[in-house]
Amino acid sequence: MHFDVIIIGAGAAGMMCAAQAGARGRRVLLIDHAAKIGERIRISGGGRCNFTNRTVSADNYLSQNPHFCRSALARFTQWDFIAMIEKRRIPFHEREHGQLFCDESAQDIIDMLRDACDDVGVKWALDCPVRQIEKTGADPSQPTAFAVNTENGRFFGSSLVIATGGLAIPKIGATPFGYRLAEQFGLPVVPPKPALVPLALGPELLEPLKPMAGNTLDAVASAGDASFRENVLLTHRGLSGPAILQVSSYWQMQAYDGGRQQPVAIDLLPGIDAAAWLNEHRQGRVHLPNLLAEHLPRRFAHEWCALYGGEKAVSRPIGELGRRDLEAIASRLNAWSLMPSGTLGFAKAEVTLGGVSTDALSSKTMEAKGVPGLYFIGEVVDVTGWLGGYNFQWAWSSGWVAGQFV
Questions:
Q1: Which tens digit of pLDDT belongs to each residue from 81-104?
Q2: Are residues 372 and 332 in the same domain?
């Protein structure tokens, strides 16, 4: 029951770390409270796993220390993981924005990682909830530094790796275990928030927007200095779609350090100066909803004009609308401002923002600076990627790095 390395969490980061540590000849135990491994991998990307992205840099991540992830991402890159996929002969394809997906099933990724662990003698303890973890000695040179008490027995290890993920998608077993353990050992935790998550709107906004629900728009969504052009979906609860999921992380970031969250701005006519465009049509007899329908869904265009321009904006030609009215409409078309009331929570979030503070960790090894032998990797750390395979790449990179040192 004595191991060189005990890893808690048999997900993407945990299995990568286990395979790397085992390949170095370390005796590794991989523990998970679930009976099945890699559930987050299995359900991701509609079951095909968006496993990385062709373009990865620190600019694709949010953290209280945005430079922390640079070292790990540089030492195990997206190309390194793609090489693993190709060596295994897993067929994959590229979608928009450099996103890479399995052709067949996310299970191919899980099988690859499981086999990599088995090939180097990693031991598994699944369906094995952890009850308590103790530091057994202050001397880091001691062969046994941690005691892990579980429902299935007591295990001892020189190094302990926490790869338990964040709070997103609780229905498949997400828990705050990793944060509580960090606090137990005196490590600060940036308060977790839902990220890559739909945004809720209050009743005062939802009610007038009800007729527009169900529409998908090609638009630019912005929060603070961050902007993304992808689809925006209006729902019966608020805003969703890839562009909204992307800016939701930045909107959440505004709340840290006592910041005040600002409205989300949506440019309904990307690349078009709405004021100049409308002015070009002032001499004609075209009605505003029909003109907007050249770029927006027809039903949405009609309801939006009725809401923000009134009956005259719907029933009269553009040429009969006042200059001030047109200027106000144009301004809103390029910057439709909506203040979210919050998010739809961890149940609808792709990942978690916040986590174990990077101030307490070594970017080179992922080891806790004040607790020799204790490591944190993956989503439990305060590093959050964009939508598009970036969070899996952080799992691979941080897991690989820790695997070289545990």
A1: 999 999 999 999 999 999 999 999
A2: no
